[in-house]
Amino acid sequence: MPIWGRNILLKLENISAHYGDMQALRNVSFEIKESQIVSIVGSNGAGKSTTLSTISGVLKCSSGTIEFLGRRIENLPPHQIVELGLVQIPEARLLFPYMSALENLELGAFALSARKEKEKNLEVVFRLFPILKERKDQLAGTLSGGEQQMLAIARGLMARPKLLMLDEPSLGLAPLLVKQIFETIKEIKAHEITVLLVEQNVFHSLSLADRAYVLENGEIVLEGDGKELLNNPKVKEAYLGI
Fold it and tell me: Whole-prediction pTM value?
């Protein structure tokens, strides 16, 4: 389906957010259409993770509107936003280290909308991440860094998201595992799950993205197709060292 024929899944209009007296986001506006991979890139402290936290309801915006599936969500609590099908995978993974991999996955299906499909969803995530099936009885805290990241993503998928937000999924991983994580993101899109990606690896992030936005000091300063921004002179100089 051509990109212009897809429905708008998420829409931010003039979102601002604060941490106390410090303004973290300034009038951020963008759209995400169904079955897209959308990337947000920028330097540390630019507001990327804050954007995800504001969308998921962890941080309340101070002004602006957020629509998901045509419904205003900026005043909803996080658990209700998850029930609607919007799931965030945090940068720190936040697994339960003294629970097994399987128990972590089952907690991902806690939302009422996902519980009845739990076994079916387990089959899907085990196909995506065969190593997790092998490690399902192992404590999450004893898994390798790459396996923990896979578990965090798989746990998010257990909630049957319509939009999956990934915060720095390749952080701290070896290059081979980074490649594997990005291949997995492509597979997730093939399952008709829309992805919003915040990622330090600008080259991989933009190469993968249908649409991308550059954040600086809490404001969007550039936007375009992923490959278009990959060839943008400013992006090359600031983020790719070219």
Answer: 0.90
